Amino acid sequence: MANEHQAKAWNGYEGEHWASHHARYDAMIADLNEHLFPAAALTATDRVLDVGCGAGQTTRIAAGLAAHATGIDLSGPMLAQARAASSDLANITYIHGDAQTYPIPDNEFDVAISRGGIMYFDDPVAAFSNIRRALRPTGRVAFIAGGALKPDSDSMVAFKALSQFVPRPARESGDTSPNPASLADPSYARKIFAEAGFDAIAVQTRETVSVVGENAADATDFILKWGPVRYALDQACVSDTTEVRAAVTSALRPLETSSGVRWSSDVVLITARVESSTG
């Protein structure tokens, strides 16, 4: 089975946590919409495929701008939330499936979008080839992926504090295995999309701001419940998080503002077109 680890995570605790806190996650990454949708340039006649749609916020936005939007995601819990929130929208369809392998109909969509749902494919060329096949001739994509993890960025503050208790395994330079920054290298991203058959490929780094919590304590509580953080703490046999919580809260205090704990980080905006036959 392709992407087995991701399927287990997103149909287990990870997906359940996102589904239960979907409004908070959507608010945290709302700034990404300001990069994604202008790049997608949706029109009233477009049929849209939303890859890794999660709880469906981006699918609903797309449906409000286009003729029809279809969201596809591995996560049953998140799709249940998406369907519930979209029950009054006639121009939305959801698919519980893996965009790398799901038999999406050929030439079905004008645009494919994704807000952070494309970095974890076991075989990205196969995944993007499958998505390309689903696009009509002259179709296009606009995808947001995680950017390079800069040691001195705001977003690393909490994870530096965590690393005192949970050592993070070092990644070799050029490691493109599934991870949030797997498509952060523009030359690698262009190569993958070219191999998948796309043309007019552009990869841009954009700075984005996330609102992680109302204050440092609230943000810390939220972060410690994230799936990967919880998993790392369990693997390190950290059952009493008192010291961890104090260290992360202290590290986040300088990021407190009147509108919450805000941190900046880089993302990658990838756009491309299908300029030849999809046959």
UniProtKB/TrEMBL annotation:
Q: Which InterPro entries match?
A: Diverse_substrate_MTase, Methyltransf_11, SAM-dependent_MTases_sf
- Recorded GO terms, molecular function? S-adenosylmethionine-dependent methyltransferase activity
Keyword list, A-Z = Methyltransferase, Transferase, Ubiquinone
The biological processes this protein is annotated with in GO are: methylation
Could you tell me which residue ranges the Methyltransferase type domain spans? 49-143
Regions annotated as coiled coil: none
Q: Which family does it belong to?
A: Belongs to the methyltransferase superfamily.
Q: What is this protein called?
A: Ubiquinone/menaquinone biosynthesis C-methylase UbiE
**Species per Swiss-Prot/TrEMBL record:** Kibdelosporangium aridum
Q: List the top taxonomic levels of the source.
A: Bacteria, Bacillati, Actinomycetota, Actinomycetes, Pseudonocardiales
